[in-house]
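#struct-pred

JT: dropping the chains for the assembly here, can someone run the whole complex?
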Amino acid sequence: AQKITQTQPGMFVQEKEAVTLDCTYDTSDPSYGLFWYKQPSSGEMIFLIYQGSYDQQNATEGRYSLNFQKARKSANLVISASQLGDSAMYFCAMRDSGGGADGLTFGKGTHLIIQP
Amino acid sequence: DVKVTQSSRYLVKRTGEKVFLECVQDMDHENMFWYRQDPGLGLRLIYFSYDVKMKEKGDIPEGYSVSREKKERFSLILESASTNQTSMYLCASRKNRDRIHEQYFGPGTRLTVT
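RK: done, full complex below.
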């Protein structure tokens, strides 16, 4: 069974600082994908970044990068130069190619608050 | 841009009522999903559909059913709503299984069952 763990229920960060949101995962499948989503107070889930298990390089999308450490089963999200608009819930998620449900398995989320 | 819409942002129903939550996507996506989101639990998959008329159980299908008569529309049905189904419901769609990194979510429906 796959499992996603986000150990930080909440974080306070000063504006313009870099932020690292932790995510560890557990799967026995060699082929899997890791995702990060942002959910602002409006409720909509916004896709941020994706990392495939066979990707050689860490994924980057603008200010977002994914620190993928396969041996540690870790997929931390790094936000550089944080902004007030980054305040939101952040979810790490995974999909593998195993049998059963084909949707994403989500972690419990981290509530990030950026302070001015 | 992909657009996934849900019929209601907020819904209040009484225990025992039959409830329909509608989801529509406008990008000809094959795969559609229903999740529920509860504080401290993250998102959990209820049902998904690979294509029209197809449906598969997710991790928590009990108390729910789904319908996919048209490609663009995926309905979640609560046959007899109960208070433990009070939650945020999120619909998502994806082009197909080869595009797993492109799953788009709707704005969510916050359902309260009294």
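JT: nice. The two ends of chain B are 37 Å apart (CA to CA). The mean pLDDT of chain B is 92.
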